Amino acid sequence: MRGPVLLRGPKIPARTSDGSLLMEQESVDWLHEDPWRVLRIQAEFIEGFGALAEVGPAISVFGSARVPRESPEWEAAVHIGGEIARAGCAVITGGGPGIMEAANKGAWDAGGTSVGLGIELPREQGMNPWVNIGINFRYFFARKMMFVKYSRGFIVAPGGFGTMDELFEALTLVQTNKIAGFPIILLGREYWGGLLDWLRGTMTSKAMISPGDTSLMSVVDDPDEAVALALGEAR
Ligand SMILES: C/C(=C\CNc1ncnc2c1ncn2[C@@H]1O[C@H](COP(=O)(O)O)[C@@H](O)[C@H]1O)CO
């Protein structure tokens, strides 16, 4: 046996795990092997659970990392972050620039809890300055779970692939009843219209989703309505 794994015949290693542990280290390559990565992954969950356990009710705000400061989308996200904080909820974002920093700024300026769940990226941006609880993740999947576990709902502003990933993960979790009573609010009818038409048309008519599935999200133009809907249906 190697731990819980049964090895027989030629698969039996020359050295036992104990033996390897006690040997003088020749190489640190083993640190980069998948079984050891599990410990890092575990550590991300432990750090995340520890840091967020007492964050209280929260709403996650997603959207493009690329919208410029002071653009209408950025200002709307500042307003949304402020309103969520004034309602006594924490704001959770990806901790980056664009919509993320805007929502964090709104929460920060309102004296609220402003959480950033950052991600290690090749071109490091660093956590935006309006985060007052920040956690940096190596792995997208660990980080994505935190958004869902610690939020009562999602507000999704216009964005690119990252935003789509976050939106469709939440939709899948609601569709498959992994989470219930979880409002998903899309901000910006014009931006989201084309996607919704395709979901209602092509995807529904080809029976890839059920007719009711597109009702798992709401689409609004008014930031205050987005906040009210996100806060209104607590899990
Ligand atoms: C690409 C740029 C900065 C990248 N920095 C990010 N920091 C934290 N989180 C990010 C970052 N980029 C994407 N995300 C996540 O995806 C969503 C936005 O992605 P999109 O493709 O821009 O829609 C966002 O909600 C984050 O969770 C600067 O140019």
From TrEMBL:
Pfam families in the cross-refs: Lysine_decarbox (PF03641)
EC number(s) on file: 3.2.2.n1
Reactions this protein catalyses: N(6)-(dimethylallyl)adenosine 5'-phosphate + H2O = N(6)-dimethylallyladenine + D-ribose 5-phosphate; 9-ribosyl-trans-zeatin 5'-phosphate + H2O = trans-zeatin + D-ribose 5-phosphate
InterPro entries linked to this entry: LOG (IPR005269), LOG_fam (IPR031100), LOG_family_nucleotidases (IPR052341)
The UniProt record lists the keyword Magnesium: no
Keywords tagged on the record: Cytokinin biosynthesis, Hydrolase
Protein family per UniProt: Belongs to the LOG family.
Protein's UniProt name: Cytokinin riboside 5'-monophosphate phosphoribohydrolase
Organism of provenance: Schaalia naturae
